[in-house]
């Protein structure tokens, strides 16, 4: 029997077709999914991602027990499909993340950004710091920010510091709220920081919990970057890494203009190693490897 997740070959594009029980994704169906992904999440699906869409949605089709891609497309365009749209978007996005991923970002945060942000806030007495992990996945990024804060500010208790962690995928948010990770995940945390702020779960050897102090700094909320942003105050630091790879250039320009408008002058923006703001935004200037500062 053909693997139900096998990719359709050129010429195997008949709508609603089955071969040995395997649904095939036609061009017309792919266009429907492209339009829905763009409309609901601003996700761009170029032609070369058609095989990826086939594989991932085939899993969802099997889980739901619907007939084929055509029936699934009908389900998504139904007026009552809001809950399934969430699963659809989740299926098309990748939630790969690690603690202290791209470690130079956290070195910069600790030694440059926090030092520069602290001076004026110390002077005026406000001591208010706001961070945003946009596209936080299962929580390793916002907790890495929290651990960096705890390890850098010996007097953090005197500060009004908060980290907003958002993602469109509600499943990963629930995982992040728990703050519990397998040993191979926490092994990415620098040893001295891990020893101080990460503890083995009671009675367990292979699962570790992020300390209460770090968890108390982070608030996890669902957010579609393509929709309205309810936040009122401005941010000092924004991490948006490996997110804009899903968006086309016009959507990227809109997104980073919105980020700039939600940040203080001089605030820091961290993006992924394969991403750039070149010809995307003039409101930030580069200050490091995939690190930018708001200038307008």
Which sequence of SSEs, written as H and E, runs from N to C? EEHHHHHEHEHEHHEEHEEHEEE
CATH superfamily annotation of the largest domain: Vaccinia Virus protein VP39
Count the strands? Answer: 12
Helix content: 40-55%
Protein structure class: alpha/beta
What is the number of independent domains?
A: 2
Q: Given this structure, which CATH class of the largest domain is correct?
A: Alpha Beta
Rg over alpha carbons: 21 Å
Individual helix count: 11
Instruction: Identify the CATH architecture of the largest domain.
Output: 3-Layer(aba) Sandwich
Q: What profile does the largest beta sheet have?
A: 7 strands, mixed
Low-confidence stretches: 1-22
Q: What is the CATH third-level topology name of the largest domain?
A: Rossmann fold
Shape: globular
- The strand line-up of the biggest sheet is 8-4-3-9-10-12-11
Cα-to-Cα separation, first versus last residue: 59 Å
Mean pLDDT: 88
Which range does the strand content fall in?
A: 15-25%
């Amino acid at each position: 029997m053909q693997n139900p997740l096998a990719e359709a070959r050129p010429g195997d594009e008949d709508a609603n077709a089955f071969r040995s029980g395997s649904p095939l994704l036609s061009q017309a169906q792919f266009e429907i999914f492209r339009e829905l992904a763009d409309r609901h999440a601003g996700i761009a699906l170029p032609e070369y991602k058609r095989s990826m869409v086939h594989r991932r949605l085939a899993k969802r089709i099997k889980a739901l027990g619907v007939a084929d891609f055509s029936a699934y497309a009908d389900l998504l365009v139904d007026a009552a499909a809001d809950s399934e749209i969430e699963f659809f978007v989740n299926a098309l996005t990748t939630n790969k993340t690690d603690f202290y991923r791209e470690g130079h970002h956290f070195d910069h945060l600790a030694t440059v950004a926090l030092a520069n942000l602290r001076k004026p806030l110390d002077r005026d007495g406000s001591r208010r710091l706001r961070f945003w992990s946009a596209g936080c996945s299962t929580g390793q990024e916002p907790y890495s920010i929290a651990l960096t804060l705890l390890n850098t500010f010996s007097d953090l208790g005197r500060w009004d510091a908060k980290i907003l962690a958002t993602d469109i995928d509600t499943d990963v948010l629930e995982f992040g709220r728990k703050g519990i990770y397998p040993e191979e995940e926490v092994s990415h945390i620098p040893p001295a920081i891990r020893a101080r702020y990460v503890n083995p779960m009671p009675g367990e050897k292979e699962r570790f919990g992020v300390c209460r102090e770090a968890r108390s700094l982070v608030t996890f909320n669902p957010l579609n970057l393509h929709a309205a942003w309810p936040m009122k105050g401005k941010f000092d630091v924004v991490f948006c890494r490996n997110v804009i790879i899903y968006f086309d250039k016009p959507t990227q320009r809109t997104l980073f203009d919105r980020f700039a408008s939600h940040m203080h002058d001089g605030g820091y923006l961290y993006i992924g190693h394969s991403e750039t703001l070149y010809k995307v935004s003039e409101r930030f200037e580069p200050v490091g490897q995939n690190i930018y500062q708001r200038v307008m």
